[in-house]
Fold this sequence. Notes:
The chain is 54% helix and 4% strand. By secondary structure, it is mainly α.
Amino acid sequence: xxxxxxxxxxxxxxxEAEELxxxxxxxxxxxPSTLSAYRRDLLAYWRWLTERGIEDVGAVSEQDITAYxxxxxxxxxxxxSVARATVVVRSLHRFLADEGIVxxxxxxxxxxxxxxxxxxxxxxEAQVELLLGSFVGDEPLxxxxxxxxxxxxxxxxxxxxLVGLSLADVDLDGRLVRAxxxxxxxxxxxxxxxxxxxxxxxLDEGGRPALEPKQWRRRGDxxxxxxxxxxxxxxxxxxxxxxxxxxxxxxxxxxxSPHVLRHSCATHMVDHGADIRAVxxxxxxxxxxxxxxxxxxxxxxxxxxxxxxHPRARRSTAK
Length: 319
């Protein structure tokens, strides 16, 4: 499809989809970030339908939904992304039926694709040292960037939790930060020595104060721990770009993302004997099952190292 034709596709959702998002926010209490992801999924779905001449979401058939899920797979989307998009589409059609807009739920018999239990991708400790040792200089933005990376790896915070930090959430003397995770759940996270030093340098004269504007543009920016170059609160996209910039600089490229730093924090702690329940609390996982993936990662790495290093690990025992 040409760029011109794609530009002519609708950029607004039908009213039924907007009503679904409102219902999810009010009745189900979905977070703004979750609703934003749902909106993107619904918009992609609506554009796909419109390309095929379907301009009434109530006229969609089960075959249309099946074809859309297959289309997502052809795009090379991650299984988890395909599964989430499918769930959102099914929710829309179930909502239409529940509200009496249509007589039949077109997505009732559509199964969400199974998501394989893939292992978290973590950097090696040497790669982390390479990344965090790449900072040279003392400029305000460099201090900020160093603190962003050190805190992400040192605490395992999610990117949204990092950029959501306010000054009152940081206790440098107690070496603690207060994070607000999914569902606005609050947890206290230890701040390691290197992360504390980087954060202290950023908050000290020559760091954050140098980026403070004469007049704050938005309420809440004055309390933000991390600022952008214009003096506003650093966004998730801005923090992601910081990670990408330094990843590219040391040759990690596609291997690195804010979530990979979170995975690396947890994996390295388990490697060094951390209790799985403590790691669960650190990361803010609702279920211990999620955290147990790191135990599997650690065990498989141990076997790999053993087989590569022990002289009799792979030797045949046949006589």
